[in-house]
Amino acid sequence: MTHQTNSTTVNQLLTKEDLVEFRKNVVADIQELIIKSTEKPTWLKSGEARQLLKISRSTLQLLRINGTISFTKLGNIFYYNYDDINKIMNKSR
Predict the structure, then answer these.
(1) 10-29 pLDDT per residue, tens
(2) pLDDT, mean of residues 60-76
(3) Where do the domains of the chain lie?
(4) Cα distances (Å, whole numbers) of residue 92 to 20, 69, 70, 86, 89
(5) Distance between CA 73 and CA 80 in Å, rounded?
(6) Helix (H) or strand (E) run with residue 36 in it
(7) What is the rounded distance in angstroms from the CA atom of residue 73 to the CA atom of residue 63?
(8) What is d(CA 63, CA 61) in angstroms, rounded to the nearest whole number?
(9) Residues of 44-80 as b/e, b for ≥16 C-beta within 10 angstroms?
């Protein structure tokens, strides 16, 4: 009985340089994920703004009406600038 070697099963050696390159790639990927997870959003929907400010729907509507909080409306959805909400939160401290 003869044993045939498939060309796709040829032994491949993993070198130290391969491992170092792999480690660098993994570290870079992890750093990118950390940066993305800590980035603040630019725009928040009404529910997110209410959660952040810990206010009700009617209070958020009142803040819109009296101009305390700036917003953009696209279709039926209100969007609030994250930095503007932070300013409001810092004023109330």
Answers:
(1) 567 889 999 999 999 999 98
(2) 94
(3) 43-91
(4) 51, 13, 16, 10, 5
(5) 9
(6) helix 16-38
(7) 14
(8) 5
(9) bebeebbeebebeeeebeebbeeeebebeeeeeebbb
